[in-house]
Amino acid sequence: MAQQRQWLGDLRSALDLMKQGLPQACIDALEKLAARYPEDALCRALVLDGVGRANFALQQPEAAIRALEDSVDLLRSTLGANAPMTLGAMQNLAHAMLGMGKVEESLAIGRESLHLTVEVCGPDSPQVAEAQLRLSAAYYRKRDFDRAESLMRKAKEIWEKQGFCVPQLGVCLNNLGRICEERGQISEGIALHRQALALRRELLGEHDETAFSLGNLGVALASDGQWAEAVASLQAAVEMYDRLGLGNGDEAQGYKKNLEVCLQAMAATPPQA
Q1: pLDDT of residue 1
Q2: Exposure class string for 161-177: b at 16+ Cβ within 10 A, else e
Q3: pLDDT number for residue 25
Q4: How many domains does the chain have?
Q5: What pLDDT, on a 0 to 100 scale, did the predictor assign at position 131?
């Protein structure tokens, strides 16, 4: 037991490196940890889960999937298929599969994880809401917007019943906004993006998810021809990404291109009398 407490502390320290934006340092620390406890199957399983997530952050999805598949197998044999750690690793694997474009594989794992999570944790648990949110992303990628929306609304309802705001509500609102845009319901989408932005500003402040909401709001406003506000929102998103040191990332670069398009459109639009 004392040995397990020791490696759990080391595991948390290694995973903190990923939260600090240092995925490669996280992998290095995790591999050293595994080498110190070669006979501990649970330690190895959790190390593999962390290595998988860190590789995904490094945009190495194939390495991520290999590590996460091994983690799920080890956790199933060590703790059982219904253990919360096993279910969490399954969701991480489904997420990585989706990142590689393996939508059907992601859906299959996500559905199994959700079913087991409901059995273990109960239908109204936050763990079920997390599983529903993850699964909804795969249905969104498949363009099955009805199933994606249904899962997101169920997850949103569960979190709202908790009596306090959680960052995942921002994800629900953002994704529901994107679905409205896909359906051509631009006004509804804009309203949802405004809600997501307000919540993220309140809960997270200066954060990449707040910048993401600013960018998505700007894109939705541009779809509605509201060029001036779209420019303001996209400019704020780009500036926040820059302040966070994320200005060269894919999201920031995408919003910079959107901003350029909006500036050109605004310049070409005659002023209203």
Answers
A1: 54
A2: eeeeebebbbbbbbbbb
A3: 95
A4: 2
A5: 94
Q: How many CB atoms lie within 10 A of CB 185?
A: 14
Residue spans of the chain under pLDDT 70? 1-5, 163-164, 271-273
> What pLDDT was estimated at residue 272?
62
65, 104 in Cβ contact below 8 A?
no
φ, ψ for residue 164 (rounded to 5)? -150, 160
132 and 231 in a single domain? The answer is no
Transcribe 106-121 into DSSP letters: HHHHHHHHHHHHHHHH
What b/e readout covers 2-27, taking b as 16+ CB neighbours within 10 angstroms?
Answer: eeeeebeebbeebbebbeeeebeebb
Which structural domain range is residue 90 located in? 29-77+84-140
Instruction: CATH number of the domain at 39, please.
Output: 1.25.40.10
Is there a domain that residue 12 lies in? Answer: no
- Position 167 scores a pLDDT of 87
Closest CA to 34 of 23, 22, 25, 43: 43
Rounded to an integer, what distance in angstroms lies between the CA atom of residue 154 and that of residue 122? 14
Same domain, 112 and 182: no
Is the distance from CB of 49 to CB of 92 less than 8 angstroms? yes
CA Rg, the chain, in Å? 21
Question: How many Cβ atoms sit within 10 Å of the Cβ of residue 72?
Answer: 26
Boundary residue ending a domain (124, 140, 156): 140
